[in-house]
Structure formats: structure tokens, C-alpha cells
Design goal:
CATH architecture: Alpha-Beta Complex
Number of strands: 8
CATH superfamily: Spore Coat Polysaccharide Biosynthesis Protein SpsA, Chain A
CATH topology: Spore Coat Polysaccharide Biosynthesis Protein SpsA, Chain A
CATH class: Alpha Beta
Oligomer: single chain
Number of helices: 11
Structural class: alpha/beta
Order of helices and strands: EHHEHEHEEHEHEHHEHHH
Strand order of the largest sheet: 3-2-1-4-7-6-8-5
Largest sheet: 8 strands, mixed
Radius of gyration: 16 Å
Number of domains: 1
Length: 225
């Protein structure tokens, strides 16, 4: 393992947040880590804004799993980080990942998550998300899932599905290694919670997860997301 990260960011019409996300990654780029933006056909200024702040800006068909898998083909390094466009990694994320791998002997993991909003209910939600993730070994994309490249190749990447690709990926990874749970938080936007309503979003997420657990097709669930 060479100790460097390839950070892969799928985007679709993310001009409002992509600059903030990428600016935080510039010290990592300067240290030799790679940043790859994979756009799914944005009609706004996402690709133009990302260009100066990324090592590569790629264009492929829309679909988060497909975009992440496409980006992984262009990764130069032995550790892959899959980062949502509205999620900001903590400072020294590279050191935290390497330390997590070294101390635990594990091959993949995720960060704790913190929602960006100030409402007290968001604090409860993020704590429950982090607890559930550590207890079940299932990570969400908001937690910036990372893994050794060889592990990614062993399971042949993210399952090609329109929703719940992070849950499906976690299940595959768990068969090979338990995750590293890094307690330092990545900060993810609370916009969907605040726009849709916090309680309404909680109920929607529960329904979608329950449906997936009961075998409902992700293609069907996507219609309600």
C-alpha cells in the first residue's frame, strides 16, 4: 500500500456545494492524493467549477454507483475514498484512514457523520446514524466510505443499482472485513432533511430501508426517494 488516497466524487447538478467540498481537499492534492470528480450529466456549472479543483473531471451516464465505479477505473492509488458532493472530509483525513487501517488491521471503513444544520433534532439523528453504523457494520454514502483498492476489486465494485448501493456494498465488504469506524466526523449537508422536513425524511428513510430489507427492488424504491 502506497499510503495515498484516490478520492472519487459523483456529481449531478451540484454547483451549490461542489466548490466547498473540493476546496477542503486541496491540501490533500498538494500532498500527492488524487481527486476525481465523476459527473452524471449536470446541466448547471458543476463541471466548470470542479475543473480547477480536481485532478480529473469525468463524464459518464447518471447513477451514483455507475459513476463511482467509472471513477475507480482512473484511480492511481491503493486506497479509495467515495465521497458525496455535499460531504466535507475532516482535516487530516488521510492520516485518520491510515491510522485506522494500521491499528485495526481492517480493510475498509467510514467516518462518523455530522449534519450541517443547527437544529437539535439533527444532533439526535446523526448520533443514531453513527451508533447504528458501528453496531451493524453498515455504512452510508454520507459517511465517506473508504477501502483498500484490492478489496474493491475483489467484490467488483458497487452493485449497479439506483438506490441503496452503499448498503449493498457494505454487506459485501462485511463478508471480508469488519469496518473501521473513525469517530472524527465528516460534515454532510442537512439540506434534504430541512427541505423535506426532518420527521418526514426520517420516516421516508425508514420506509426505504425496510422495503429494501424485505426485498423490494431498488428501482421501485427510487421512485419514492
Amino acid at each position: 500500500m502506497n499510503g495515498f488516497l484516490s478520492i472519487i466524487i459523483p456529481t449531478l447538478n451540484e454547483q451549490a456545494v461542489i466548490v466547498d467540498t473540493l476546496q477542503v481537499l486541496q491540501p490533500l492534492r498538494q500532498a500527492g492524493h488524487q481527486v476525481i470528480v465523476v459527473d452524471g450529466g449536470s446541466v448547471d456549472k458543476t463541471r466548470n467549477l470542479a475543473g480547477p479543483l480536481a485532478d480529473s473531471v469525468l463524464l459518464t451516464e447518471c447513477g451514483r454507483a455507475r459513476q463511482m465505479n467509472f471513477g475507480a477505473r482512473f484511480a492511481h492509488h491503493d486506497m479509495l475514498v467515495f465521497l458525496h458532493a455535499d460531504t466535507v472530509l475532516p482535516a487530516q483525513a488521510d492520516e485518520l484512514i491510515i491510522k485506522g487501517f494500521t491499528e485495526s488491521g481492517r480493510k475498509w471503513g467510514r467516518f462518523d457523520v455530522r449534519l450541517s444544520g443547527q437544529k437539535w433534532l439533527l444532533r439526535v439523528i446523526e448520533r443514531l446514524m453513527n451508533w447504528r453504523s458501528c453496531f451493524t457494520g453498515i455504512a452510508t454514502g454520507d459517511q465517506a466510505i473508504f477501502m483498500e483498492r484490492r478489496l474493491y476489486q475483489q467484490i467488483q465494485g458497487f452493485p449497479d443499482m439506483p438506490l441503496m448501493e452503499d448498503v449493498a456494498m457494505s454487506r459485501l465488504l462485511k463478508e471480508l472485513s469488519q469496518p473501521v469506524c473513525i469517530g472524527t466526523a465528516a460534515i454532510t449537508s442537512s439540506r434534504r432533511w430541512e427541505q423535506r422536513g426532518i420527521i418526514r425524511t426520517i420516516l421516508l428513510m425508514w420506509i426505504l430501508r425496510l422495503g429494501y430489507a424485505l426485498g423490494v427492488s431498488p428501482h421501485v424504491l427510487k421512485k419514492y426517494y
